[in-house]
Amino acid sequence: MTKPLRLEIDLNDRTPDNLVPAHLPDGVTVQPGQQVVAYEPEDQVAAPAVVRCLALGQALLDVNWNAMRDDASSRHIVGHATIGIDVAATQATGLEQTARVFAGLHRSAEADVSRVIDLYERWVKAGPPPLGTSISRWWDARLVELHDAILPAAHETGGQS
Questions:
Q1: How far out from the chain centre does Cα 155 lie?
Q2: pTM for this predicted structure
């Protein structure tokens, strides 16, 4: 029996249908209905998932959130290389696992809120737009900054080939 394919996800990234996009590395192919393991290296959790559809180099996964657990074979990304790190597996109860998942989600949300607060403080310090500046362009620039503060990974990966 072969191990199911592992696909990296972001716990905070979901479609309106509650599907989670997972980038497909070069040379990796999946089919709708295929069983995979969705893992989140930042929070070191993993859960079984089913590929529902494929779109634009991504697999949209239906993740079994109730089966999420600590990921004993957590992977960390360094540059373009994936390095496997053995993490001591613990025999945690369901309640402990749930607490760890929520703690990971909290850390991720806390980082988002911190970036938005820092942006707000910069805006207050900068004051209103200079006279003669187009309000529309000034506001558009602020919206781009806000978007990048909330979803920094989307902007960082957009320029990479």
A1: 13
A2: 0.46
